[in-house]
Amino acid sequence: MVQSYLKHGPTQAFGLVCSSSSNSVFDGKLAFVPALEDVLVWDVKKGHMVAMWHETGHREEVTCIVQSPKPDLFAVGYSDGSVRLWNATTNSVSATFNGHKKAITALCFDDGGTRLASGSQDTDIILWDIVAEAGLYRLRGHRDQITGLHFLSVADSQPSTSTASAPGLLLSTSKDTFMKIWDLSTQHCIQTIVAHRSEIWSLAVNQEQDLIFTGSGEGEVKAWRIDRKSLAEGLKETQVGELSRIVHPLSSLPLVSKHRVSQIQFHPTQPYLAVQSHDRSVEIFRVRTVEEVKKKQARRKKRAAEKGKQAHGNGNEVENDEGDGASVAMTEATLVDFFTPHLVVRASGKIRSFDFCGSHSNLKNVTQLFVALTSNALEVYNIPQPTKSRDEPAEAMRTYSVDLPGHRADVRTLCLSSDDQILASASNGSLKVWNMKTTQCIRTIECGHAVCSTFLPGDRHVAVGTKSGELLIYDIGSSTLIETIKAHTGTIWSIHVRHDGQALVTGSADKDVKFWSLEQKDATDDSVQSGKLLSLVHVRTLKMSDDVLAVRYSPNGKLLAVALLDSTVKVFYQDSLKFFLSLYGHKLPVLSMDISHDSKLIVTSSADKNVKIWGLDFGDCHKSIFAHDESVMQVAFERGSHYFWTVGKDKLLKYWDGDKFEAIQKLEGHHGEIWALALSHHGSFVVTGSHDKSIRVWEKLDEPLFLEEEREKELERLYETGIAESLNRTEAPIGSGVEGGPVNDIAMTEAAGVTKQTTETLMAGERIMEALELADLERDKMKEYNENLARLSENDAMRMQPPARNPVLAAYDLEPEAYVLRVVEKVPSTSLQDALLVLPFGKVISLMVYLTIWAEKEWNIILVSRIIFFLLKTHHHQIVANRIMRTTLIPLRKHLRVALQKQRDIIGYNLAALQFIHRKNESERTAQFYEEEDLDEEKVKARIAEGKKRKRINLKA
To answer: Where does 585-661 show beta strands of DSSP type E?
Structure first.
């Protein structure tokens, strides 16, 4: 009988406010922030989470978030190179784009929100069509990761010489110090500027699109002017014979600090520019108007003239000349005149990103600045308007902050109450208590640098061991620190309560193991609580030869195990402290250990990446297992069994069988080293805490798990990812069948197609192949039957019954061609082209036959057109060289033309109808104006054009 286990799966992830992997977006009320592989939506004012954007099975970190001009649509980039379009109203993915090989570093929508540009660590820029859900083309030219993208709109009146449907320019910056301008109609770079001496980290363009700001790694911000005239006219030769340039350098903007300029942003409506170059602060510049600058220049001239008069009166002619020179210099406005420092916003921690409030703030004369911190917190600051009084310098005030639902530092220790209802987590600076049903933080208490913790009997108190050697006792009900015991002179690495609940043992780096008894004492007058208080009384001390890293009582209460820095584990009798066993074999110190419920096995986990299982009768090592790729931080037995769990610095949680010495399950999910592990007392779930500041719950499911099946699935995944990776290799030589490989070591072209094979596209291609095979067999069978039937006379008794239909077609009640269309329609639009690339040429010919049938019957003409154009473009040479294809292509051309003509007629009819409705609406509005006011027709049209219509007011019942 094959043994089956119960599978565990991730169910909850909490403790995260925001992660530092990506930027954040703020719309005035809601903040859209990254939380490792998810996006969280926070109501900043109320401080609670509104939604979580989570896609099942996707574990890659969020690296970039950007909001579309259509407010409900967000583009989110991930570290695996995929981009997902999320709908904020339904909290679901509307499209997934796969084209990049490495993490997404920059995203940008065009003005209409119909095109999306994505930049990545793989140095490529890809343009995506949001409406058609397809990749348009890939732009190559940069030599390092893309750091900024921005669409530059071309004037509508510009005569477009190209046949491209969407002209325009794209601005891109990269770590390779270059800023490039791409002409999207010709798909080529038209200007390359060496912008800085070091990497360009940030890019911003003002609302009028005539100024560009770039920030470098050396803390320098440069301003560039966009020549709107040459932008409208396109590339033309000057009199000298050089091409006209679109971007021209202006000057630099002086900053307070000289750190890396990680973000620059213009306020969408207010005259503000924000620059983040320091870890903890954001500089706000006020953008002056031309009138304000002229007034300032006039004042400067006046002052310079007065100085000159004074100098002349004193008989000092040299000063007079200098004064005149200064006045001449002031006539030309400098960049500093337009961008004047307003204030510096200083946050409470290191800033990851900031964002201006998208819409107008509810407060008068106040602009809001949203800040996401690397310490797992969010803050909103109010920026006041500039005042004329010089006495009071403007200061930013923090209005909202979201920090309670998470730790500021790594989660170092976890412990569960005996009924599994409450979880306590501790980090450097705070102890938090969580309700396990709702995963809400119900208590936050300040503490020192916590290293270990445990619930004391009764579940009302938590004992925390700190790095300074203190033992802190907290009362959960009142959120108070009851007692601080200076227990050790070194770090307390381990605490364990004896199973009878009467005693406690602590192990420390000061080489002492101390024993404590739990007692109730009367409350003093100055204490917060009345009645009896829990207290720890020091009973005895066991001195060791080396630092103590872990201590553990056996469940039967007879033995005490002590792990030392010399990589050994010493076992003593608990009552007499007499030496019993020494367990040696680890090459590096044992970081954690646990004893099974029957006190027969002890499992030790070490920094040497191994887990060893020992018998407690004789101290023999039953098995040594290479468990993790990094140090194994913690190990724990499941209640009532010999199954145990391990966590390591390799970000993995693993489940093991201690009798068969086999790995049962490997659980991925964390994005940082896992420091802490806590097991349910009823064996129903596991909780882990990590360097990524998240706490995750892994529940036991009812689904059985067979080891052989799991191994097969792992091998299949490895095989599939191997195929996808080999197809996506671009450095492979010509002839290897790899798309986009270099020819005779010649560099790749600037513009290329957007293709990327993934496991999903390979599977979609296989499904299309299976459907084609099934349909071909069915059609051949029917053809043979009809031929045989035609040979027999009508009165012949041998007339055969029609052959049995394929069970799949019979179940769906579909004809073969309809079934193939159904399968093709189910392939996501974004991965259709990659799925078609999987098909061998024989299957392409077969698919052409079905395309002809679909065109004739006018089924989904849009999809048919898209497939046929892509196949003709991809397999052009083979199709041209193959004479047999004529018989398929000629009827296909005929039917497709007829179908497309009908589609064109319908669209034309609808357009004409819409124009008629528009004209009717215009004439009615004009007539209405005539009736209301005594105006002539020209004035009415002018007022309509200005948009001076009646205001629409939403009446509330």
So the answer is: 590-595, 601-606, 610-615, 621-626, 632-637, 643-648, 652-657
Q: CATH for 19-154+167-225+244-293+335-399?
A: 2.130.10.10
Supply the pLDDT for residue 800.
65
At 434, the amino acid letter reads W
CB 408 within 8 A of CB 401: no
pTM score above 0.90? no
Spell out the residues 6+ positions from residue 105 whose beta carbon is closer than 8 angstroms to its own.
63, 64, 77, 119, 120, 121, 145, 146, 147
**Degrees to nearest 5, angle at CA 570 with 567 and 574:** 150
Give the 3-state secondary structure of residue 210. Answer: coil
Residue 587 burial (C-beta neighbours within 10 Å; 0-12, 13-18, 19+): exposed
Helical residues (DSSP H) of 314-417, grouped into ranges: 317-329, 335-338
Bridge partners of 171, per DSSP, are: 150, 181
633 burial (CB, 10 Å; 0-12 / 13-18 / 19+) is: buried
> Cβ–Cβ contacts within 10 Å for residue 450, how many?
24
* Coil/strand/helix, residue 229: helix
For residues 655 and 643, the answer to whether their CB atoms sit within 8 Å is yes
- Which DSSP category does 888 fall into? H
Name the burial class of residue 557, with classes exposed (0-12), middle (13-18) and buried (19+) by CB atoms within 10 angstroms of its CB.
Answer: middle
Among 220, 346, 204, CA closest to 265: 204
The 8-class DSSP code of residue 421 comes to S
Cα–chain center distance at 622: 44
Distance set, CA 868 to CA 231, 260, 752 (Å): 37, 50, 20
Is residue 710 exposed (0-12), middle (13-18) or buried (19+ Cβ within 10 Å)? middle
Instruction: Classify 246 as helix, strand or coil.
Output: coil
DSSP 831: G
Could you tell me if 654 and 645 are in contact, meaning their C-beta atoms sit under 8 angstroms apart?
A: yes
With b meaning 16 or more CB within 10 Å and e meaning fewer, what string describes 37-72? Answer: bbbbbbebeeeebebebebeeeebbbbbbbbbeeee
| pLDDT value of residue 730 | 59
Q: Alpha helices, DSSP H only, in 2-78?
A: none
Cα–Cα distance, 759 to 724 (Å, whole number): 7
| Residues 379/373, Cβ–Cβ less than 8 Å | yes
Q: Could you give the C-alpha distances from 405 to 20, 464, 496, in angstroms and in order?
A: 16, 20, 28
The helix or strand, by DSSP H or E, that contains position 471, with its residue range, turns out to be strand 470-475
Nearest-10 Cα torsion for 413, 417, 420, 421: -100
- Which stretches in the chain have pLDDT values below 70? 1-2, 155-166, 239, 241, 312-333, 358-365, 388-393, 522-532, 728-748, 794-800, 929-937, 940, 943-957
Q: What pairing do the DSSP bridges indicate for beta strands 532-543 and 512-522?
A: antiparallel
Token pair recorded at residue 600? 């027969």
Q: Helix 841-857 to helix 816-826 angle, to the nearest 10 degrees?
A: 110
Any idea where the domains of the chain sit in the sequence? 19-154+167-225+244-293+335-399, 759-775+802-903
Q: Residue 744: what pLDDT?
A: 42
What torsion, rounded to 10 degrees, do the Cα atoms 881, 882, 888, 891 define?
40
CB 771 within 8 A of CB 843: no
SS3 call for 381: strand
- pLDDT tens per residue, range 335-359: 778 888 888 999 998 999 999 986 5
Say which residue the tokens 């007034």 belong to. 295
The edge-to-edge listing of strands for the beta sheet with 272-276 is 263-266, 272-276, 281-287, 339-346
Tokens of residue 217, six digits: 């790694």
CA separation for the pair 612, 627 (Å, rounded):
9
